Amino acid sequence: MLMVGNGVAQDAGIDVEQMMTDADALVVGIDVTTRCAVFDTSVSYLSPLEQVAAEIRLGEIISSASNALDDAPDRIAQMRAAAAEQTCGTAGLAPYMDFSRQIARDVIDIALVAWKSIDVPGCNYFADEDFMRAAELASSQAQQATLEGEANRVAYIEQRGAVWSEVFAANCANLGFEPAKTLPGQIALALPTD
Predict the structure, then answer these.
(1) 48-68 and 16-36 are packed helices; what angle lies between their axes, rounded to 10 degrees?
(2) Alpha-carbon distance 177 to 166, whole Å?
(3) Which listed residue, 15, 84, 105, 144, has the most CB atoms within 10 A of its CB?
């Protein structure tokens, strides 16, 4: 059942080559943030929350691409090797950061839309205390969040968020459900607490 949420991104009408281009940009954004953000302030790297969100979307793309392309793992490995060669602090990184941040914002907004209606206390998730605190924070932030952007972006975010909400509702009494491994769960755990 968990794959239902990921399946939204795996529409048959999606251009696989465009997904691979997106994956390449995300790989660079994630890799240089990991390597460079601690000591280089000349580029606006991803925040920890944005990095988690970008990694979630990259995982969705890799999953979809692996189903459509035999050489997807090799291509992703080549992307990672090329990203590792990027020099920290160069102006050429800005478009990668901007794209990764935009994708991350979409993923975060999807999670917050879902958290508006996810009922963690009313379900038997048997998650640990850290997750329960994160879910409470996410639910609180979701109530205050507003969606911005073009109508098609807002519709996409609301539709994806509704699917995740349905996944949680359908698994309310499922003892094997692992909410921390879902898109909303990962974002909840990554939300800053201050």
Answers:
(1) 150
(2) 13
(3) 105
On the CB side of 50, how many CA atoms lie within 13 Å of its CA? 20
Integer Rg of the chain from CA:
17
Give helix then strand counts, H and E, for the chain. 8, 0
Instruction: Give the residue from 28, 3, 12 showing the smallest Cα distance to 103.
Output: 28
CA-to-CA separations, 83 to 23, 69, 114, 158, 165, in angstroms, rounded = 11, 21, 32, 32, 35
Q: Are 113 and 162 in contact (CB under 8 A)?
A: yes
Collapsing DSSP states into helix, strand and coil, what is residue 35? helix
pTM for this entry: 0.88
Quick one: DSSP state of residue 178? -
- What residues contact residue 139 under an 8 Å CB cut-off, 6+ apart? 115, 116, 118, 120
The pLDDT assigned to 13 comes to 56
Q: How far apart are CA 8 and CA 10, in angstroms?
A: 5
- Give me the average pLDDT of each 10-residue run along the chain (194 residues): 39 76 96 95 95 96 88 93 95 96 97 93 75 92 93 96 95 87 95 87
- Give the model confidence (pLDDT) of 38-67 as tens digits: 999 999 999 999 999 999 999 999 998 888
